[in-house]
UniProtKB/TrEMBL annotation:
Organism this protein belongs to: Actinomadura rayongensis
Record feature DNA-binding region, as residue ranges: 34-53
InterPro entries cross-referenced by the UniProt entry: Homeodomain-like_sf, HTH-type_TetR-like_transc_reg, HTH_TetR, Tet_transcr_reg_TetR-rel_C_sf
Entry-linked SUPFAM superfamilies: Homeodomain-like, Tetracyclin repressor-like, C-terminal domain
Keyword field contains DNA-binding: yes
The protein's name: TetR family transcriptional regulator
Keywords on record: DNA-binding, Transcription, Transcription regulation
Length: 200
């Protein structure tokens, strides 16, 4: 698991733990990550982890809260979108965010696969408000018969899937580590959104 740790860990133990846990939860899921693994990867002992962040559940909630705050900040930076060019800029900002922070899509993809199923309210607390916010933007620019919620979720599903798994090819997978592939994905999502929303 050493390859999951960042090259340089923060000196502050709490930040070190949170950063390490974020990477591990994104790679292995909540259910596949133990407190002992987090401690070992962070170069600390289990007691130190517990002292700074509590138990694994508390740590996971902290990680998901931070992921939500980062994602929400992207949307808030584009508040007031009321036209098609603004929607396209917001779409690009969302794709950029997911490519630059692949741990966030990875955390949600794990949840889609019933990871941390005993923590049931994260979707209603974090995902739902953002989807509703974006659906309101879509309703303002799309044709009247467009299902705004499904339009937003289609972009989320596509973007998270691309960031998490890339595109299979003969040599393995092409994904966010290839700028040309990101450009191709972005162009595809733009075409998809234009057609889905009836934009011209």
């Amino acid at each position: 698991m050493a390859d999951l740790a960042p090259p340089v860990l923060p000196a502050d133990p709490r930040e070190r733990i949170i950063e390490t846990a974020t990477r591990l939860f994104a790679a292995l899921g909540y259910d596949g990550t133990s407190t002992r693994l987090i401690a070992a990867t962070a170069g600390l002992n289990v007691a130190t982890v517990a002292y700074h962040v509590g138990g694994k559940r508390d740590l996971y909630l902290t990680v998901m809260e931070r992921a939500h705050q980062a994602e929400r900040a992207v949307l808030e930076a584009h508040d007031g979108v009321a036209d098609v060019p603004g929607l396209r800029r917001l779409l690009d900002a969302y794709i950029d965010f997911c490519v630059e922070h692949p741990e966030v899509p990875a955390l949600w993809v794990h949840r889609w696969q019933s990871d941390a199923a005993d923590i049931a309210d994260l979707e209603s607390r974090y995902a739902r408000p953002l989807v509703e916010r974006m659906a309101a933007v879509v309703r303002g620019v799309a044709e009247a018969d467009v299902d705004a919620e499904y339009a937003v979720m289609t972009v989320v599903w596509c973007t998270h899937g691309f960031c998490r798994g890339g595109v299979p090819d003969a040599a393995g997978r092409r994904g966010i580590d290839r700028p040309a592939e990101v450009r191709r994905f972005r162009a595809h999502v733009h075409r998809l959104v234009d057609r889905m929303l009836g934009l011209h």
